[in-house]
Amino acid sequence: MISLVDGIDMPKICDDEEALDAFMRAHTYPAEDGLLVKQLVHHPVHARSDRGNAAAYFRFPGLEALEAHVSELPAGASATLHRHSCEALFYVLKGQGYTVIHDERGAERRIEWKKGDLFFTPILVWHQHVNASANSMAPISGDYHDSSHEIIGCMVH
Known about the structure:
- The protein has 157 residues and is mainly beta.
- It has a single domain, classed as Jelly Rolls (Sandwich), CATH 2.60.120.
- Helix content is 6%, strand content 43%.
- It is built from 1 helix and 12 strands.
- Strands 3, 4, 5, 6, 7, 10 and 12 form a 7-stranded mixed β-sheet that branches. A 3-stranded antiparallel β-sheet has the order 9-8-11, with no helix packed on it. A two-stranded antiparallel ribbon has the order 1-2.
- The N terminus and C terminus are likely disordered.
């Protein structure tokens, strides 16, 4: 169903903060010695039906302005159209795909990415990640900066 979201015609997506909070409580892992997550590409991830991916979050004691997680998209799959109330950087651990970003006027911009690439999504910009690989998962590591210094449960993917 297409509806008007912030003046842009696109599927309307409901942000479910309660579902994310519950997911994070169940699937957040402590960093080793508070500073390190080893072998991130092999870390277990858990299905997130609200986003169409699988993810795990990581806790670093004393880290207040960033949030770290890893997420995977199945081969040929796409995440749900969504946006963050914070800046987000994504480092691609494996595979290839693209992210479609919708600007404030509704124009689309496609960012192609592959293993080793780093990309950014600005605050409140609607976007959707797509795994273009036909036969492998595409794990992406996400780090978020929340300028209010309040971790609010931003994505990934």
